[in-house]
Amino acid sequence: MTLLRHDWKREELLALFDLPFPELLHRAASTHREHFDPAEVQVSTLLSVKTGGCPEDCAYCPQAQRYHTGVEAQKLMELDAVLDKARAAKAAGASRFCMGAAWRSPKDRDIPKVAEMIREVKALGLETCATLGMLSNGQAHALRDAGLDYYNHNLDTAPEFYGEIIHTREYQDRLDTLEHVRDAGMKTCCGGIVGMGESREQRAGLLQALANLPAHPDSVPINRLVQVEGTPLHGTALLDPFEFVRTIAVARIVMPKSMVRLSAGRESMSDELQALCFAAGANSIFYGEKLLTTGNPDVERDQALFARLGLRPMAVQVDTHGHDHGGTVHADIVEAAA
Ligand code: SAM
Ligand code: DTB
Ligand code: SF4
After folding, report:
1. Is 158 helix (H, G, I), strand (E, B) or coil?
2. Is residue 193 in contact with ligand 1, taking CB distance under 6 Å?
3. 171: buried, middle or exposed (CB in 10 Å: 19+, 13-18, 0-12)?
4. Could you tell me which residues are beta bridge partners of residue 317?
5. Residue 58 annotated as part of some ligand binding site
6. Ligand 3 mean position, distance from CA 44 (Å)
């Protein structure tokens, strides 16, 4: 049985990154098989329930008010419109529905409205996830009481690169929110973005910070920067695709029991690159035509990819701590993969 470590050293992660590519893939794939069926992939659908107009200055983000990206600020969506999207996501084969809001943090008066969305989405038989910015302890408990299964809050990058990307909140603020989420008994979804101009050492630093959290995140989204015109990071040199695969592989090795999600950036990836990511231990995706404001592969492309690779959507699994991972297998995507 693999011991879950929380004391990873930067040199150890760099030594993994430095392995010959086939050796790194072999180690990651072996770790993957110890804990998961490598043919199964968890599928989540995202919906932006409150888009744009965000006061923060995250240099990658199309929703920051201060950048001119063409994203129009909208109010919080009405419950019925959210439920229509959730039903459609379920019908297309998603098992988890993640609601995102372009907030620095929710106002207390927003919480009852979001709580209602969570209750109703859960009642459809979907797992629920939300990403609303920083949470106080009380807010985290209120969301948990509404039935929220996962909270997404990313570290985004290594502590030493963070100041180049975000100036309106501290790394410690993120760690505090994650602590509130864990204390409330919710599962954490926490990862970051690569391809922002960081060095390999800083990519290792992100994974080190994630793996050395008091508990490994249940889901680890690894986003490849989606470059949006108008954001400061538009025009950043593209990351070598093999370096992206290495990042997935090292994440799999250091967080062996977590879902490693091949997240933003898939639309511009070839099928072959995605296949390498699955071979390197990625076992979760965002599924559906849209992420929050940018595109994602369409459902037909993903169903065809699953079929060609012999992958199938993951069913709900209950681990030894009573945590479930994944969701119900849905007929459409199973048929497509058959
Ligand atoms: N406003 C909340 C927050 O920042 O926590 C929740 C939504 S925010 C859009 C969620 C995450 O999306 C960010 O932490 C970042 O990792 C990711 N993200 C945003 N823009 C991105 C982009 N252009 N490319 C890749 N990932 C992105
Ligand atoms: C995460 O790590 N990636 C998702 C989700 N968590 C909320 C968001 C990706 C956003 C990509 C840019 C956009 O669509 O606005
Ligand atoms: Fe706002 Fe979140 Fe975008 Fe940062 S990542 S600008 S907090 S919506």
Report:
1. coil
2. yes
3. middle
4. 325
5. yes
6. 20
C-alpha pair distances (Å), 31 with each of 2, 38, 273, 279: 9, 10, 20, 11
What's the rounded Cα separation, in Å, for the pair 326 and 337?
17
Question: DSSP letters of 227-238?
Answer: --TTSTTTTPPP
**Is 19 strand, coil or helix?**
coil
Coil, helix or strand at residue 248: helix
Q: Is 58 a catalytic residue?
A: yes
Residue 277 is labelled as binding a ligand: no
Per-residue pLDDT of the chain (338 residues; tens, 9 = 90+): 567 999 999 999 999 999 999 999 999 999 999 999 999 999 999 999 999 999 999 999 999 999 999 999 999 999 999 999 999 999 988 999 999 999 999 999 999 999 999 999 999 999 999 999 999 999 999 999 999 999 999 999 999 999 999 999 999 999 999 999 999 999 999 999 999 999 999 999 999 999 999 999 999 999 999 999 999 999 999 999 999 999 999 999 999 999 999 999 999 999 999 999 999 999 999 999 999 999 999 999 999 999 999 999 986 443 334 444 433 333 344 443 43
Question: In 195-283, which ranges are E strands?
Answer: 219-224, 259-262
| 285: nearest Cα among 293, 254, 31, 298 | 298
- The DSSP output letter for 186 is P
Residue of 337, 310, 258 lying closest to 34 (CA atoms): 258
Closest CA to 187 of 216, 158, 207: 216
Of ligand 3's listed atoms, the one at least distance from the Cα of 104 is 7
23 CA distance to ligand 2 middle (Å): 31
Q: Which atom of ligand 3 is nearest to the CA of 61?
A: 3
* CA angle (170 as vertex; 164, 176 as ends), nearest 5: 145
Q: Whose CA is nearest to atom 2 of ligand 2?
A: 221
